[in-house]
Amino acid sequence: IIMGARNESLFLMKEEMTALADEIIFMTDDGSYGRKGLVTEPLKELCEDTKGKPDMVLAIGPPIMMKFCALTTKPYGVKTVVSLNSIMVDGTGMCGGCRVTIGGKTKFVCVDGPEFDGHEVDWNNMLQRMGAFKPQEQEALHRFGANDGHKCNIDKMADAKAKESK
Ligand code: FES
Known about the structure:
Blueprint: E1 2-5, H1 14-20, E2 25-28, E3 35-36, H2 40-47, E4 56-59, H3 63-73, E5 79-83, E6 99-102, E7 105-108, H4 109-112, E8 115-117, H5 123-130, H6 134-144, H7 154-164
Parallel strand pairs: 1-2, 2-3, 4-5
Antiparallel strand pairs: 5-8, 6-7
The structure holds FE2/S2 (inorganic) cluster.
């Protein structure tokens, strides 16, 4: 497993993921935990490993990261499955909000995915569509702000789940 985050505080479920993996590599943008750099660096090293490249890569996370994982593995012929997270409205295949282009064909992430062959995704089209509401997102951020008193508790939820399963 390769896990990446901007800094150490943003990793979720580090212990659980470590327990699942034969080997785990942590990457941070600022070097506060593990190696400093992007997840594509160790991914490329693994693809170049003379002892055997990965059979398959499963990339989950921000679209830009998944795009560059797919671009990294493509020259090595390593099958790369990505879990797309395009904008969704109805989630039933009717609104078209989540439309992506895969291998030149129109697909809907909500009903045809979310997993697709990363080498077939039209990433530029997807990233452009995901930016369609950027002005509204900026306005909402400005209006409601990041300092509205909200505290993300997802890490506490993960801890509680881990305790439940013990
Ligand atoms: Fe509407 Fe997928 S969310 S078609």
